[in-house]
């Protein structure tokens, strides 16, 4: 009797193991990576809140967006888009959003957030004190991580960029650091409209995700001579000062 029970238990365990293996292989390696990576935002929430932030913002050309989130280690952990389908926003925006997220995360510290929009005046030739001219050229994008994979999976749970450290540096609006209280936990990048609209919608999205720093002093200054240049239809840009 004991041998029969033991044999039955082994058989059940084997069946369960096979079922788990089948489930694991059916969701694909990228989807498994996304569920196992540390990430300040789950894909489903990013997708939902991105669509809401897109609907709420009226600046720019009224385009749709691609959004990328990196964790504190700079690894892409969530990618989404706000339009009806993956062709409803610029394809190039996926890589730009990833670089914006990487930049904001990589330059932000405890209680010291940096947005990509803040960098613009400091990277121009002849900038005032503390120039950062050449900053963007010093950290190129990893093309293998940015462009590999099936196009039909871009912006989904199985986006092949997930799990990659894409890198890149962007010095115009659209990239913000993500915070848990005073501690940076990653970066958010948006692209798809004007740089001002990208920043504005990212600002709304970060607030909706409740991942803004306690003192959000990473606002960009809209000034054609000493700050980030104005953009078409930038009245009402969120997270900006005149």
CATH topology of the largest domain: Beta-Lactamase
| Helix/strand structural class | alpha+beta
CATH-scheme architecture of the largest domain: 2-Layer Sandwich
Please mark out the parts with pLDDT under 50 across 5 or more consecutive residues, or reply none.
1-27
Gross geometry = globular
The H/E string reads: HHHEEHHHEEHEE
**Radius of gyration from the CA trace?**
21 Å
Mean pLDDT: 88
- Number of DSSP strand runs: 6
Strand content: 5-15%
End-to-end gap: 82 Å
Number of helices: 7
CATH superfamily of the largest domain: Haem-degrading domain
What is the makeup of the main sheet?
4 strands, antiparallel
Describe this structure in words.
The protein has 242 residues and is of the alpha+beta class. The protein folds into two domains: 1-36; 38-241, Beta-Lactamase, CATH 3.30.450. Helices cover 36% and strands 13% of the residues. It is built from seven helices and six strands; from the N terminus they run αααββαααββαββ. The protein has helices at 2-26, 29-36, 43-56, 92-107, 116-119, 143-147, 195-208; strands at residues 66-71, 76-81, 175-180, 183-191, 220-221, 240-241. A hairpin with a 4-residue loop joins β1 and β2. α3 (43-56) packs across α7 (195-208). The chain is globular. The model is unreliable at 1-27 (pLDDT under 50).
């Amino acid at each position: 009797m004991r041998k029969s029970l033991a044999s039955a238990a082994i058989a059940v365990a084997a069946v369960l193991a096979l079922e788990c293996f089948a489930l694991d292989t059916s969701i694909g390696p990228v989807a498994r990576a996304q569920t196992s990576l540390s990430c300040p935002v789950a894909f489903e929430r990013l997708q939902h809140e991105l669509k809401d932030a897109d609907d709420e913002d009226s600046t720019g050309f009224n385009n749709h967006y691609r959004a990328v989130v990196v964790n504190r280690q700079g690894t892409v952990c969530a990618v989404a888009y706000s339009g009806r389908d993956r062709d409803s926003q610029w394809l190039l925006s996926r890589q730009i959003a990833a670089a914006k997220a990487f930049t904001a995360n990589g330059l932000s510290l405890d209680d010291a957030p940096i947005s990509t929009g803040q960098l613009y005046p400091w990277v121009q030739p002849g900038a005032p004190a503390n120039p950062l001219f050449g900053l963007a050229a010093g950290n190129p994008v990893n093309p293998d991580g940015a462009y590999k994979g099936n196009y039909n999976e871009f912006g989904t749970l199985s986006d092949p960029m997930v799990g990659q450290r894409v890198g890149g540096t962007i010095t115009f609006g659209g990239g913000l650091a993500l915070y848990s209280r005073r501690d940076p936990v990653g970066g958010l990048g948006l692209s798809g409209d004007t740089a001002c609209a990208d920043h504005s919608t990212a600002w709304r999205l970060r607030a909706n995700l409740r991942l803004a720093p306690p003192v959000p002093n990473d606002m960009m200054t809209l000034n054609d001579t000493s700050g980030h240049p104005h953009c078409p239809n930038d009245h009402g840009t969120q997270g900006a000062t005149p």
